[in-house]
Amino acid sequence: MSDATIPAEGLGAAFRTQLRVIGALTLRELSARFGKENLGYLWLFGEPALLGSAIGALHLVTGHTMPGGLDPAFFMVTGYIMFYLLRGVINRAPGVIYGSQSLLYHRCITLFDIILAKDVLETAATMFVMALFLGGCWLILGKRPAHIEIVMWSMLLMGLFAHAVCLLLAAGSIYTEVFERVTHLFTYLTMPFTGCFYMAFWLPTDLQRVALWNPTLHIFEMMRYGLYGLSVPTQFDQPYVIGWIVALNLLGMAALRAARRHLVI
Amino acid sequence: MIRLHDVSKSYRTHLGQREVLRGLNATFAPGEKVGILGRNGAGKTTLLRVIAGVELPSTGRVERRMTVSWPLGFAGAMHYNMTGADNARFIARIYAKPVAETVDFVREFADLGAYFRLPVKTYSSGMIIRLGFALSLAVDFDCYLVDEAIAVGDSRFAARYHAALTERQARSALLLVSHIPDVVRSYCSSGAILDNGRLTRYDDLDEAIAIYQAA
């Protein structure tokens, strides 16, 4: 940007400044959300745990089983934790700029830094919940995930995907309030399609082809490959997902940069 | 040095596009103390925001060849749910200052007593202004942007702030916007008038004040 932050700054120095700022923002966010006076961290565990127990109880009562003989509670909870990451990042997007205006008084802090810091924290926190849940299942039930590193990698991809959507929504929120009104509705309505509660192989072949246009389904399938290994058929195309992530992130960064000029603080 | 190159700023309103700054060109040198006079609504605050980089100009650009503070005034720059001490820690981190020293300096200078350990939302407006000034002095900018607010701090604090700025006389520049000539006179050595979206510089502060009062 032509209006430079500090005189005589090279690209390397600018990069170090940005890393420092993102670090400080992440620390600040950490104490704001998970500080000792805040029970935010409880819900991080509480929500998937409640859902897991409810679904488990429901299936126990009705005696329903799942395709492929999967354990419903385990399937739902892992799916929900991943969805929780997607929803958490996206739902916050339209309000993120308004809520962080005081930070923009400091020229070294960019909108991108603010959003990245929040999303990094959200992704890390959700990965931690997943690790705890899987660790618990392993210790108590002796159920060991096939490839834990692929589960974590898929969560990182979901974080990057959600982050890109968040950038786009945040940029849009500078121009109109519409996103604030419809984002929550949209995340709930699309919940069944994201892939959190179904697998591609449950669908007829024609429908599978259509469903697999959706990049989030690939990410869920990847996670399930990490959980179940080859005992359950999964379908995912990593380059396809990464292509989406790169394209959406580039678009999001460009949109945010263009919108910054119109932001009134 | 700060240079404004054809800086314009307009806002979209229900009544159409409103142009607040119209093609401003100006240079502010290191160590200069400039009082910018303007009536309410003349665009003083907008000018400071654009110089600070809080908002970007609609056209033109701002060239900064020295470090420039955020606009010091009633609001902004602080997180209201965090304590004064946590705000100081955060500022130290983003501006790459030693954390412990910064916190000590801000505690000392802002003189908030026990409130330093309480969330900023519990502060009075005078306390918020004191914290804001203390934070900005802790970072040690080359140029301070001040929005009227000096007049609001109590006289004891105003004296300390005046002393702190004078101590930095040689290196720190000051851009002070106000609609009160007396405030400008006690801090500045040259003047400017912002009127109808245009900025006119006067090397002689008394001349600027005379023209401002005549208008």
Task: Describe the fold and architecture.
The complex is a heterodimer of chains A (265) and B (215). Chain A is 71% helix and 0% strand. Chain A has 265 residues and is mostly helical. Chain A has one domain. In chain A, α2 runs antiparallel to α3 (72-92) and α3 packs parallel to α5. The model of chain A is unreliable at 1-7 (pLDDT under 50). With 215 residues, chain B is an alpha/beta fold. Chain B has a single domain, classed as P-loop containing nucleotide triphosphate hydrolases (Rossmann fold, 3-Layer(aba) Sandwich), CATH 3.40.50.300. Helix content of chain B is 36%, strand content 29%. Chain B contains seven helices and nine strands; from the N terminus they run βββαββαααβαβαββα. In chain B, β6, α5 (155-167) and β7 (173-178) form a beta-alpha-beta unit. In chain B, α2 crosses α3, α2 (84-94) packs parallel to α4 (125-139) and α3 crosses α4 (125-139). The longest helix of chain B has 15 residues, at 125-139. Chain B is globular. Chain A binds chain B through residues 2-7, 17, 20-21, 23-25, 27-28, 31-32, 101-109, 260-261, 263-265, and chain B through 11, 49, 52-56, 58, 61-68, 70-71, 75-82, 86, 90-91, 93-96.
